[in-house]
Amino acid sequence: MWALIICETLEGASKTSRSFPMLQTLDWFRRFLHLPEPRIEHLATLWTVRGPSNRDLTCCAYKVQTGLELRVEYGPEDIVASQLFQGRDADERLCEKADVGRLTLIATGFREIAT
């Protein structure tokens, strides 16, 4: 892939030149970056329901670097939905959203399982 570059000369006329980008690998640079792992703290498991497929769907609250996160998941690596809540009343809004989700799933045929 090449890019077309327009250069202005001192007289104001423009000329066109072709430039071919150089591919660079920055692998050498990555070893100098010591980025910490993102902090994710499991706060609570709010509910678990079982659907028609007999898989357990769990709703959990997590504390992340940017606020509180509500996750609906089949497992830690199989997240179905996620929403971030920030601000003073983040915990209240998170619980309200979780309850609405639970009631919606129960109304559509899921059954609640004790946690």
Top keywords for this entry?
single chain; 115 residues; 19% helix; elongated
Describe the model:
The chain is an alpha+beta fold and 115 residues long. It has a domain at 40-113. It has two helices and seven strands; from the N terminus they run E-E-H-E-E-E-E-H-E. The chain has helices at 27-30, 90-107; strands at residues 3-8, 14-19, 40-50, 56-64, 67-75, 78-85, 111-113. The strands form two sheets. The chain has a five-stranded antiparallel sheet with strand order 6-5-4-3-7, with helices on one face. Strand 1 and strand 2 (14-19) form a beta hairpin. The chain is elongated, with a radius of gyration of 25 Å. The N and C termini lie far apart (56 Å). Residues 1-10 have low confidence and may be disordered.
Helix % is 10-25%
Order of helices and strands: EEHEEEEHE
- The poorly predicted ranges are 1-10
Distance between the termini: 56 Å
Calculate Rg over CA atoms.
Answer: 25 Å
Oligomerization state = single chain
Number of helices: 2
The whole-number mean of residue pLDDT values reads 82
Share in β-strands: over 45%
